[in-house]
Every structure is written in structure tokens, then in C-alpha cells.
Amino acid sequence: xxxxxxxxxxxxxxxxxxxxxxxxxxxxxxxxxxxxxxxxxxxxxxxxxxxxxxxxxxxxxxxxxxxxxxxxxxxxxxxxxxxxxxxxxxxxxxxxxxxxxxxxxxxxxxxxxxxxxxxxxxxxxxxxxxxxxxxxxxxxxxxxxxxxxxxxxxxxxxxxxxxxxxxxxxxxxxxxxxxxxxxxxxxxxxxxxxxxxxxxxxxxxxxxxxxxxxxxxxxxxxxxxxxxxxxxxxxxxxxxxxxxxxxxxxxxxxxxxxxxxxxxxxxxxxxxxxxxxxxxxxxxxxxxxxxxxxxxxxxxxxxxxxxxxxx
Length: 311
Hints:
This is DUF3102 family protein. The chain has 311 residues and is mainly α. Among the domains are: 16-120, no CATH class; 121-206. It has 12 helices and no strands. Helix 1 packs antiparallel against helix 2 (38-55), helix 3 (61-73) crosses helix 6 and helix 8 packs antiparallel against helix 9. The longest helix has 63 residues, at 161-223. The radius of gyration is 43 Å and the shape is elongated.
């Protein structure tokens, strides 16, 4: 039986390499071979993978960023200290900026990439990149609340660009409206705080003025003869008593009248009102008893019993 002619497998097409960049990367790696220690070996390995990833288009960009995030988090970039820069005779001091420079990228670019990976994860970020979203859009997505970011991540993993764009526009619009509302509330709260601060400052100034006036009055009273001092104090306490009486017959009486008008709804406020009056009477009774004052109606002293008064 004749054998069938074998079919050769199709040749695997590999992505084209950037020869110039690959050569430069190899030279950069060669300059780091003099570094020693475990940390330096790790940095060399990760740096080499990142450099090679720049030449191999098939290498996942997000995986490369994750490795750079690991280097930054563990501060492994310090291991390049003491090595020579591939771009001159300068000795490396082991900074994050130098490490990014060896990759041909700025610190700002790498930090933004790391922030995006940490916010969205490798899979979702890779999908967003394929959809064509750049730094500007990703920054908008990062500003969304965590629950909304999570919703975007789940849709991004599916890979449906139309659904992703629709959801992103809806969430960004919602976030903008919520931010505007919070901004107005903040402005209102700031205005209220400013008004209260001004009022407090005004009252504080008035209080200081009253205290100074009182201090002056006391000094004047102390310098008066006894009869004039008595007359001044009588005038002062009379004014205080009159003010208290005005409060009772004014605001307090007005409040009682409003409660009485509402009593038609079936609720009786007289017990509550009687309690307030009783408290005032008790307070006045305490003052009357403390200073052994006579009763206002009959002129009898409160410390005398009825029998003593009649006798």
C-alpha cells in the first residue's frame, strides 16, 4: 500500500524584531552584568525581560508593567547602584528614575501604567488597551468610585467595546452629576461656615466690649460712696428684673399663646406649660429663701410661719 505524501506544517510566523533596539537593549544588559547579589540578579532578570518585551511585539504590555510594579514596590531598583550607565560613564546611584531611564521611559509614564494595572488588573487593562483607550480615558476611569470601576472591569474582560463605551459614558456622566452636587453642597457649607464665623467674631467682639464696660462700671461703683453705690446697684438689679419680666411676658407668653392655638387639634399643652411656670416659681422661691426676702403680697418674711406672722 502506497504511503500518502506527508503534509508539511505551515511555518510559524514570528513578529519582526527591531534589530537596532534589540542591540541597544543587549548592550544595556551587558553593562549590568557586573552587578552582584540576589537582589541584583532579580533586577537584572526583570530588567532584561522588560527590555526584551520592548522588542517582541507579542509580549503582553500589562505583564511587563506588573513586573515593573514589583520592582518599584520592593525597591529592587536600588540594586543597580554602582553600575555604569549604558549611555555614558555616569555611575548609577540606584534610583527609580534611573531604572525607568534604562528602559527608555519616563517615571511619569511608568507610574501611570502601574496605577492603571493596580486599578483595573492585567486582563481588563489589556482589553482596554486593545479597544484603543489611552492615558486620558484611563485616568477618567480611575477617578470613578470603586464599585463603578469594578463594573467597568467586568465589562472590559468580556471585550465588548460597544457595551463598554456605553457603560463608561453612563458612569462618567453619573459621577460628574454627583460631583457637581457635592461641589454645591461644599460651597453652601463653606458659605454657612463663613457666615457663622463672622457672626461668632461679631458676638465675641460685642462680648469683649460688654466685659470691658462691666469692668469699668465695677471700678466706678467701687469708687463711689456707700449710698451712691447702693443706688447704682439697685438700678442695675432693677434693670435685670425688668428684663426677666419682659422675657416672661413677651417671648414666653407668646409661645404659650401659640401652643394654646394648637390645642384645638386635641392635644392639651397645659401640663407642659404649668411645668415651665412651676420651674420659674421654684427658681424665684430659691432666690427669695436664700436672701430671706419678704413676701411680695403681704410683706411677711418667708422664714416666718403663719402663726408667727399672726402673732
